[in-house]
Amino acid sequence: MIRIANGQGFWGDWLEAPVRLVEDGPIDYLALDYLAEITMSIVQKQKQADANLGYARDFPPLMGRLAARIRERGVKVVANAGGVNPVACAREVRRLAPHLRVAIVEGDDVFARIDHLIANGHAMANMETGEPLAAIRSRILSANAYIGAFPVAEALATGADVVIAGRCTDTALTLAPMIHAFGWREDQWDLLAAGTIAGHIIECGAQCTGGNCQVDWKSIPDFANIGYPIVEAQPDGTFVVTKHQGTGGRVTCDVVKEQLLYELGDPKNYITPDCVADFTTIQLAADGADRVRVSGIRGAPRPAMLKVSISYDWGYKAIGTLVYSWPDALEKARAADGIVRERLQRLGLHFEEIYTEYFGVNACHGTAAAVVADPAEVQLRIGVRGTDRKSVDRFTRELVPLVLNGPPTATGFGDGRPPVREVVAYWPALLAREEIRTRVEVVE
Amino acid sequence: MKVPLSTIAHARSGDKGDTVNIGIIAYRAEDYPALVREVTAERVKAHFGDLCKGEVIRYELPNLGALNFLLHEALGGGGTLSLRVDAQGKTFSAALLRLEVQT
Question: Residues A241-252: pLDDT tens digits?
């Protein structure tokens, strides 16, 4: 049996979580997931500004903080902290923790090969709209194929203490230690599916130990001290989801079910580079306090195509708010929205979208929300987006004047006009597997 | 008896591009048939009104006593493009639990 913990569900998750996992009980592997869909574009921009950046900058200091303890306890760290610059990330880890052996996985980054790939007939059409990638060629910021668990397992086989990957799948961080420890092969689809589903359960950190859980949430103990998840994996593909004793949170079948359904598409076809997992085969059983046993998982052969995550410059957006108080708070906010829209129109400004929400009334649930009679206050929230920066900038000047020249009792304008933000959009596409060749390197 | 869906099920929602997924899970296995019967793709589409501009697709997971819904074109462009306060669809789960169902 091996214990694989997840101490980071996204870049920005609780800084203490990985430290607590190492300090508070036994684990063999610490998986850290830093990359969301849009993170690659952020790190790409950082690399363009400074060739020594382009990775999750929280990671090297964390390794510095944990170095002595993970060496002492023999814990191996597996992270997709490399972003678009795993080498630079590894060098910074080595600078802060010189005694750690570090290996990197490369080959996911296809940004420099885009023109070559398009010229060779790889359309990389948008999976949602069908548009060919050539349509946005000049605006592409980053392009990375999702790679699977086998290259990460290969990096573990070098004996490294820390494995740093770029755009590997979130689930690969959990599956790779199982492949490495149990010797699973590339065609053992049921086992690979089991490890993939274990990864899905723990990849969002505390979301499987009581965080963001709707089941009797008020009774979930000690959120302040919430335990992050641990999978106790067996060579036969069965596993137990748990957390360290003495930590807060809760692990029950209901909690695990919620996370199984999180960001799920077709449950029979959960596609990864390693296999296709079938969520309708999962069997859960309570296995004592804060323990859930998972078994029965079936998988199917891996796909011929890999998903590519491409980011590109889209344009600009700005979102501004004003608060109106009782009486008639909602009517005042509606009137103010009408005034803003009329003024924008008279200025001849055009936007791809203008979107208004009445925060406190319907912002989250729309027309599904219950009607609130005469609320004490309502926040008017107007957003615009478009490709013309000047138009978006002009919009940001149109809210604050309403405090003096519109409906009465407007407030909440203390921060002045809202900032104009650059919008980087996401372009999911498919690419033939043969085009991606990964390589593992030990960084001395 | 008509009750809010929240009395027999819990839920979690998330995003993928401009698509929201909502998983709803029966607290008790014996209530799963009521979920299948009452919470149809058509009703979910109507429940969300203007918020969901595209198709709603339903998948069944009887092994978990759960249904999974995909709501297309439901996040105002999705990801970084969205102007919504709930740009990732995190609260769609709770919104669906408002639905009235016959038990």
Answer: 999 999 999 999
